[in-house]
Amino acid sequence: KRKRGDTIRQAADLIKESKAIIIGITGSFGKTSTKEFLYSILNQSFNVGKTDENQNTDVGIAMSINKNLNKDTDIFIFEAGAYSIGEIKKIVSWIKPKYGILTGLGNQHLSLFGSRENLIKAKSELFEILPSNGAAYINKDSSGYKKVLEILKCSAVLYSGTDLDADIYLKKYLKNNISDNFNVTISYKGEDLNFVSRLIGRHNIVNLLPCIALALDLGVSRDLVKQELESMNQVSGKLSKHRGLNEATYLNDSYSSNLDGFLSAIDVMKDIDGKRKIIITKGIIELGKEMGSSYSKIL
């Protein structure tokens, strides 16, 4: 316990001494992908640090800060997970982010929280602490997002894969006829941004939306944003494509699982040519009372 406390205290001291802008990411799913996407975009213009892999507990975040936050770090990005109310509140009490991203409010780990209301309350803890001169980037496609808006002291940017009334939304996502890439158009504040993406899975493009908006808001040029979007690769274990025996194609989406991601993976698989398509999965765990309704959507 003393070692754990020392690790967190060391990280808290580094945060106090640092002039870096702190960005926090939370949600039921998509945290790691969003973090990696945001890091790639911002790292073209700033000296950026981030938490390693999927380290999203208080001590995991502290370990990454001690390792990756340097004197010349301009921006530090962390992802925060939670399995109960109060966990994120403890983390942000000493990290004090200026910006926050809410990736989504699904039913992953619902059985641990006991209710959807508790899940929303737990994820909202990051946004309660955002200062008035900060900003929150919130997934409008998630039921319960309005509850998060109610506790904000700062401005909010809403993003969506379908809602044209969102501040930033996915306007077009079409397979390129001559390659495995996708032609994408997103709209932010009335202006379109067109790019060709290697990323597969519509949900991955949705994960890009808050990253694009935040990068533009921090002053990164549209040209640099587009350049990075077009060179960006799939995060390993997040629908990454591989070759197996006998030239078989397989998609590795084993990093973690949630209903929205599972459905998106099925949609991607439908678009891949092949006579035999097989899904191997351990299923989605900790769905609680929503297990039946969730699996009915899959089947």
Q: What's the count of strands? A: 11
Major pleated sheet: 9 strands, mixed
Strand order of the largest sheet: 2-3-1-4-5-6-7-8-9
Helix content: 25-40%
Order of helices and strands: HEHEHEHEHHEHEEEEHHEEHH
- Rg is 19 Å
Amino- and carboxy-terminal Cα gap: 45 Å
**Sequence stretches where pLDDT stays below 50 over 5 or more residues:** none
Beta percentage is 15-25%
Shape call = globular
How many DSSP H or I helices?
11
Average pLDDT: 85
Alpha-beta classification: alpha/beta
Write the layout of secondary structure elements.
Elements: H1 2-17, E1 21-26, H2 31-42, E2 48-50, H3 58-68, E3 75-79, H4 87-95, E4 99-102, H5 110-113, H6 116-128, E5 135-139, H7 145-149, E6 155-160, E7 168-175, E8 182-188, E9 191-197, H8 202-217, H9 222-231, E10 240-243, E11 249-252, H10 259-271, H11 291-298
Parallel strand pairs: 1-3, 1-4, 2-3, 4-5, 5-6, 6-7
Antiparallel strand pairs: 7-8, 8-9, 10-11
Helix pairs in contact: 1-3, 2-8, 4-6
